[in-house]
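Hey,

Quick one before I head out. I ran the complex with 1HE overnight. Inputs first:
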Amino acid sequence: MNTSALPRSEDLSVEITGEQSQLAIVTLTRTAKRNAISDGLIAALRDAFQSLPSTVRAAVLCGAGEHFSAGLDLSELKERDAGQGLHHSRGWHVALDAIEHGPVPVVAALHGAVVGGGLELASAAHIRVADATTFYALPEGQRGIFVGGGGSVRIPKLIGAHRMLDMMLTGRVVNATEGERLGLAQYLVPEGEALAKALALAERIATNAPLTNYALMHALPRIAEQSADHGYLTEALIAAIAQSAPEAKQRVRDFLAGKAGTKVKKA
Ligand code: 1HE
């Protein structure tokens, strides 16, 4: 596909691939700095996820080199005053919101360091696949700073505020096995296999009805935060909209007609 319209940055690569260009692979390529996230890189991530081609049905987010991401580029931190710090954090919020509340589900492929802002970035994805080399940490406490990329909102939802507090107070490093057990990643795979697994999942996700994927990304987390009473109503409204789509009707007809590949198979 013509990729000339995609935003360009030497710290981020965006590849559109798959049959009918339905997958985007977004790779942090700032390997010399362990994919530390500079102002330029956070802006590139925002632009990439805000301008995915309309053919894309799912995206994979990964890091080149030995690590997924070393978090915030600390060399830029020392130059900021309080007001600039506020706007810097808000800039991360916009970029990571473009991932979490963008047009398509995002699968993060993790390996090596997933620390600080790197964990905040990974938390904005919908599915995390970690390989055996992955380790997670929130060294902000040691650096005398605080999370600023939405981590205080997203990470407690994955592992609970008490575990995030432990990671930040003690500088505890969580390994890949423990990370999967705690809920930082939904999948744990052998070393070097995270990207392949993430791509396979993204391909599978891309075959779902786009409206259902959108509803899952946008409605499910919001329903989870509503009162039960409001949640049931939101669920009913989303269910009604999803099932009224012509594609949904066709998919149900295909199942009822016994078409190949429509049955749920035992894992
Ligand atoms: C960096 C950064 C960085 C590496 N900012 N330059 N994040 C941290 O506190 C994590 C800091 N980084 C590390 O603990 C380690 O670098 C790693 C465990 C991730 C990787 O270790 P290693 O041995 O593979 O690499 P390295 O030799 O430590 O680093 C290679 C280069 O990357 C080196 O630069 P060089 O010019 O000397 O070659 C490092 O200085 C550079 N580098 N990490 C800047 N983070 C929205 S708020 C979020 C708040 C946070 O994220 S706080 C946590 C920040």
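The pocket of 1HE is lined by residues 33-34, 36, 66-67, 70-75, 92, 113, 115-117, 120, 139-140, 143, 145, 147-149 (CB under 6 Å).

Talk tomorrow,
K.
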